[in-house]
Amino acid sequence: GPTGTGKTLIARSLAKFLKVPFTIADATVLTEAGYVGEDVENILVRLYQASGFNAEKTEHGIIYIDEIDKISRKDGNASITRDVSGEGVQQGLLKILEGTIANIPPKGGRKHPEQSFVHIDTSHILFICGGAFDGLEKIISRRIGKNNIGFDGEKIFVDEKSDEIFRNAQPGDLMSYGLIPELVGRIPVVAALQSLDEATLLSILTDPKNALTKQYQKLLKMDGVKLRFEKGALKAAVKIAVERKTGARALRSIFEKAMLDVMYDIPSMSEIVEVVVTAETINNGKKPKLITKPNSKKSA
């Protein structure tokens, strides 16, 4: 799914709910064994450390491999030269994903003959691989449109910019993208996430117990100041976030820009009792309304 749609959050929430060890591995730093970079087995070392060095707990943990799309082959054909950070990593992941007894150094790093190893059975570890897969929509739309050429072909409109197109992804599309067939075969379930719409982003801003707006309200409350966000301000922020196409991550930068000066000034302004963030604050960079104590001179 697209960036900022909650792929990592889903995996982390799942581990928290099940109360099992969880770790996030970045696929972009992995290299084939014997080359500079992190070995594939270092993923298991991180999970082992996250479980409190308990081998039994490690064997029932969850590993989220992020940016899996970044280790794809640069084209659909097998490379003539060794692709140590792309296809080589995919091949290194095969046995771990399928289930094997891996020998890992307890403290990580490179293996050497004199150190003791911990044996980890990966058969019951849940591997979740995530990525934005930018460009996959073009491969899917090409495949869907190819079968409908000619006078007798059924005309189907294929909108490659729509999030719905990821729902039509098939193993062949992932192979065309650059994942090797053996890896695709070991990841049987493919789930597509859609970009967050305005209603969902608005919910993210207000509903969770640690929502972004509540965080800012808590910070200003420490200085004895009430913070209020007008409905128009929230909708304006959501509209900008949708235009930026970076998902929920855009909300943080939008509000940080709007609140920066206020959060810096408020501790030294004892007469202020309430701050109101308006739509103009978000859209035009206008300063939020400042409401003073009744006996103080009004300011805005």
Count every helix, treating DSSP H or I runs of 4 or more residues as helices: 12
Q: Tell the overall outline.
A: globular
Largest sheet: 3 strands, parallel
Under CATH, the homologous superfamily of the largest domain reads P-loop containing nucleotide triphosphate hydrolases
Briefly note the CATH topology name of the largest domain.
Answer: Rossmann fold
Q: Percent of residues in beta strands?
A: 5-15%
* CATH architectural category of the largest domain: 3-Layer(aba) Sandwich
Mean pLDDT: 87
Order of helices and strands: HEHHEHEEEHHHHHEHHEHE
Q: What's the count of strands? A: 8
Structural class: alpha/beta
Brief rundown of the structure:
The chain has 300 residues and is of the alpha/beta class.
List the helices and strands and how they pair.
Blueprint: H1 7-18, E1 22-26, H2 42-50, H3 55-58, E2 62-66, H4 87-98, E3 101-104, E4 118-121, E5 126-129, H5 136-146, H6 171-177, H7 181-186, H8 198-206, H9 212-221, E6 226-229, H10 231-244, H11 249-265, E7 272-277, H12 279-284, E8 289-292
Parallel strand pairs: 1-2, 2-5, 6-7
Antiparallel strand pairs: 3-4, 7-8
Helix pairs in contact: 5-6, 8-10, 9-11, 10-11
